[in-house]
Give the backbone structure.
Amino acid sequence: MKMVDLINSKRSGASHSEEEINFIINGMLNGSIPDYQASAWLMSVCFRGMSFDESSALTQAIAKSGDLLDLSSLGSCIIDKHSTGGVGDKTTLIMVPLLAAAGIPIAKFSGKGLGFTGGTIDKLEAIPGFRTSLTIEEFLGQVKEINAAIASQTGNFTPADKKLYALRDVTATVDSIALIASSVMSKKIAAGANIIVLDVKCGSGAFMQSLEKARELAQTMVEIGKRSDRIMSAVITSMDQPLGNVIGNGIEVFESIQTLKNRGPDDLKELCLYLGGIGLVKAGKAKNIDEAKKHLGKFLENGSAYQKFLEMVKYQGGDIDYIENPQKLYTTEFAFELKAEGSGYVEKLDALTVANAAKLLGTGRDKKDDLISYNTGVFLNKKIGDKVYKGDLLAKIYANSIEDGKKARVILAKAYVLAKNQVKPPELIIDAI
Ligand code: URA
C-alpha cells in the first residue's frame, strides 16, 4: 500500500477500506508517513468527506492508537456527555454531581480549552487547590467512593488524535465533519462509557453555525458510536446567545454552584436536566424524558447535587471556602457596567461577540501554553426577549485592568441589539437524534 495512492483515491472521491485507514493512522504515528502526505490526505478528506463506515473505521483506529479505559468495575451503565463547545457552557460542572447524586457513577475526563474561554478543567482550576490531574487509580477509586470525578486525561489516550489535531490546526483542515466526528468519538470511546449523550451546539458561538451542519455532525457521531456498540443520543441546542448569564472561568463555577443550589438561570437548568434526563432514560432508570427530568430536579431542590459537588471538590483538594463563598471566584480589582442607551426588547445577544469580550479579559487562550485568568469574566443581566429601559444594566464586566475592562465594554455593547417590539427568546433545544 502506498500513501500517494491513498491520497489520490480520496482526492478523486473514492472510499477507503478499514485496512487503508489503519495503514494511514499507524503510518502517521510511527513516522513512516511524513506530515506533508498526511496533510495532503487531510485536505482531501476535507473536500471529499467520508462515509459513516469510513468515519467509524477512522474513529476506531484513533481510539486504539493508545490506551482504552476499562470502566466495567464501576457498573454496567456508565454515562458520558460531550458538548461541542459553546459560550457559557458549564453543563459538565452541573451534570456530573447531579447524576452522581442520583446514584449514577460518572467518571468524566475533560480538557483545557482553546478559544474564548477555558474548558471544564480550566474552570475547575479556578478553585484554589483543586487537583485536576489524577492517576487512573485515583480517578476510578474516587468514582467508586463518591460516584463522581472530573479529571484531565492522563496516560496515553488517543495519541493519534493529538498528532492529527496538531496537523489539522496548521493546515486549515479542522473544519471537516468526518474529522471532527472521528476526533470527538475516538476520545469518547477510549474513555470507556457505554452511554454517550452529545450536545451539538448550533449558532453564532458554536463550531457549527448552521442547523444543517449541526445535524450532519450529530448524525455522524451517533452512527459512529452505534457502530462501536455504544448507546447514543445527540441533542442539537441553540448557541445564538450564551448559555446561562455568565462567561469566564471562576464566574462559571459560581453559576454552576448557584444552579446546583437550584438558584441558577432557567436555560442552564433546563439543559442540564434535559441532557441528564436522556442519560437516565438510556440507562433504563426512567421511562421517558419528563419523568427523568422531574426525578433529577429533586436533587437540585433537596441540596444533594450541591453537596455532591462539595464532596467532589473536597476529594480533589479544592479550597471549600471558595465554594461556600463563591463570589470569591470572580473577585477582580475593576468592574465596569454596560448600561442600555435606549429602551425596547433584547433582539440579539451575539454569542461570538460576547465571547470576544470575555477573551479580551483573559478568560481564554490561543495556544496550549498561554496563561489565562481565572477571576475575570462577564455577567449578562439581560438576554434575548428581556424588556430593557434606558439606563438599565445590560451587563457587568470583571477585569484585571482598566484598559481591558473598557475595551471589553466597547465590544460587549456591539453584542446587544434592541428592538421596539416584543421578541420571543430562541428555543434552546432544537432537535434530538
Ligand atoms: N473537538 C475535538 O475534540 N476535535 C475536533 O476535531 C474538533 C473539536
